[in-house]
Amino acid sequence: FMTKKEKKKKIINQNLRNKTLNRRYTSLIKYLFKTIRTSFLKVKKGNAFTTLDTSKLLLLSQKLESILDKSVNHNVLHKNTVARKKSRLKLFLKKQISHF
User: Fold this and answer.
1) Which of 6, 31, 35, 73 would give a disulfide with 2, using CB separation of 3.0 to 4.6 Å?
2) Strands (E), 1-100
3) pLDDT tens digits for 25-56?
């Protein structure tokens, strides 16, 4: 058995570890969303939308979806939140690609 003092230290260490893991996932998700959005705006301004750009963006979106799924498995985000984010991402991609 652990003493109360040891248990408190253990809980603090667990909280710090979980906080860093949660921050890693959430910051990566925010970064990928931002890069996808800004890349479409840059392409839109240049009026030159090539298949290379679309393939890169689709790969980014696939990576983002897999990270979202992993965040559910690691209890970082709720499954409904991830479902909402994924559907909004797909709608955004569909809308942007149909414009070109």
Assistant:
1) 6
2) none
3) 999 999 999 988 888 776 666 655 555 577 88
